[in-house]
Amino acid sequence: MEYKQHYFEYIYRAKKTYHLVLEVTFVALFGMVLFLSFLQQAAADSSKIVKWKDDKGVTHYGDKIPPQYANGENSLINKQGITIKRNKPVSYHDLALEVAEAEQKKHDHALLSAFTNENEIDLARDRNLQLDQVTLEGLHLQKTNSNKHLNDLQNYAASFKKKKKPLPADLAKDIASNQAVIAKINLQIVDRKAIIDATRKRFNDDKKRYIALKNHANGTGPKPEPQLVSVP
Q1: Which among 184, 174, 180, 181 is positioned nearest to 154, based on CA atoms?
Q2: Of 66, 105, 132, 222, which has the fewest beta carbons less than 10 angstroms from its beta carbon?
Q3: What's the CA gap between 83 and 197, in Å, rounded?
Q4: Closest by alpha carbon to 85, among 95, 75, 97?
Q5: Where are the alpha helices (DSSP H) in 47-167?
Q6: pLDDT tens digits, residue range 80-112?
């Protein structure tokens, strides 16, 4: 019985030692593979040449790009002189064009999703214009009343001049104040008309765009050109 116990203990220790040796061997082999990969990559990198341009457009070659030119145009060349990688900086124009085209697609999708026919665009335009038109009518009414009041004040002032009497300071102040009010109303009328014209143009452009998109989708018209893309 004691012999069997010693035998099983021996087998247990032998298996434990075997697994430990396997683990150590695996770690060693894995480390060796990583080390060899590192050496291979280092050797490959050392055989490559970097080509870049400075701020004056002069081309340079070396093993490392100076930090101030890292974001500029550059290339990676292998030892055979073959360009294996090119890095071209994204210009402001290209980036702006990409953003504008994305906005155009978003606008077209919203346009086709919001309306089922072109008449609905006209109705939406009229709804959007209602408040501005009511505001414009109110401004014209204010201007009419202010002009009438100014005319009364000026007639009253003329009576003092006719009698060769000095114009009361309060009357002169009221006339100037009323004239300023009318000038302000005129500016508001101009602004409101500009808003109304812009709204009409926006909906008219949307209507034309909608028709063009529908015709293209139905196969009865060409692909419409982008409208929102306007990049300097």
Answers
A1: 174
A2: 222
A3: 56
A4: 75
A5: 92-114, 118-162
A6: 667 777 777 666 677 788 788 888 999 999 999
CA dist 101 and 226 (Å) reads: 7
178-200: pLDDT as tens digits: 999 999 999 999 999 999 999 99
Beta-ladder partners of 87:
74
Which amino acid appears at position 36 of this protein?
A: L
CA distance from start to end of the chain: 96
3-state secondary structure (DSSP) of residue 226:
coil
> Which tens digit of pLDDT belongs to each residue from 106-139?
999 999 999 999 999 999 999 999 999 999 999 9
SS3 for 85?
Answer: strand
**Closest among 144, 110, 134, 112 to 192, alpha carbons compared:** 134
Query: From CA 52, how far away is CA 63, in angstroms rounded?
Result: 11
Is residue 75 a contact partner of residue 86, using CB atoms and an 8 Å limit? yes
Nearest one of 194, 155, 200 to 178, comparing CA atoms? 155
Structure tokens belonging to residue 70? 């890292």
- Strand order in 74-77's β-sheet? 59-62, 49-53, 74-77, 83-87
Pairwise CA distance, residues 146 & 130, whole Å: 24
Among 225, 184, 181, 187, CA closest to 205: 225
A 10 A CB-CB count for 206 gives 20
Nearest-angstrom CA–CA distance, 84 and 103: 35
Residues 6 or more apart whose Cβ sits within 8 Å of residue 160 = 166, 167, 168, 171
